[in-house]
Amino acid sequence: MPSARLTISLALLLLSAPACRRQVDASPLVASAYGYELHRSDLDGLVPAGLPADDSLAVISNYIDQWVRQTVILAKAEKNVKDDFGRELLEYKNNLLTYTYERQIVDQLLDTVVSSAQIEEYYDAHRSDFRLKSSIVKAVYVSLPTASPALRKLNNILSRSPFRESDIVEFEETASRAGLKGYYDADAWMPFYSLQTAVPITVYNENLFLRQNRTIAIRDDSLSYLVRILDYKVSDDEAPLELQRDNIRAIILNHRKIEIINNLHADLLKEAEDGGHVTRNF
Hints:
single chain, alpha+beta, Chitinase A, domain 3, five-stranded antiparallel β-sheet, two-stranded antiparallel ribbon
């Protein structure tokens, strides 16, 4: 018995084959294989309007090559595979028709507006579903030549406790005046490994390191790196809502799609039963 993969492949080949050996077509023949024929009319609409001649020729040539390969495989399969796949092809067709109809109804009825309040409500009700797989941080940092006169002042700013928003502004302004590039978005979460890509931080225990370090100063041969970690969450902590908004929106929309389809099924079944179009003999 052929595998499911073979069944699907043959179904697609049979459904997509553009011509058969019994087809009558008066247009010129452009290719044939094992009695199957591909005619010029089968290429209508294949080439987009305005495509240069060389590109058009390449599109047609590639299509013909693909058709020949598929047809050769199909002919060999017909000869060696005894199953006619009638039931599988019917099931494939029925599933495709059903899916297409359901998609049409969903496109008509789906409300795609998801408010911030709905996202927050879903997040609050399912917090345990949103767990981090790796550590994340909020941080500001800068890299600069170790000989830079701004190094001492920048280090002093980052070392302040408490560290306020005004300190971040001063840190950025001081770095900018010195012509330095850094990262100053204190509200954005980033993966801790992204910070390690920008700053050569080597740790063996992320949880312990993040608990024990707020200000980080690293120096190599010619550069110094200054980092202030403003907040952090480690693996398996609840993921912040800011990082889950798009994900939650997709979840809510998917729930709406499922509800539309379930209601459609129920309505169609009731309509069929009320109209006497359904009989059950068991």
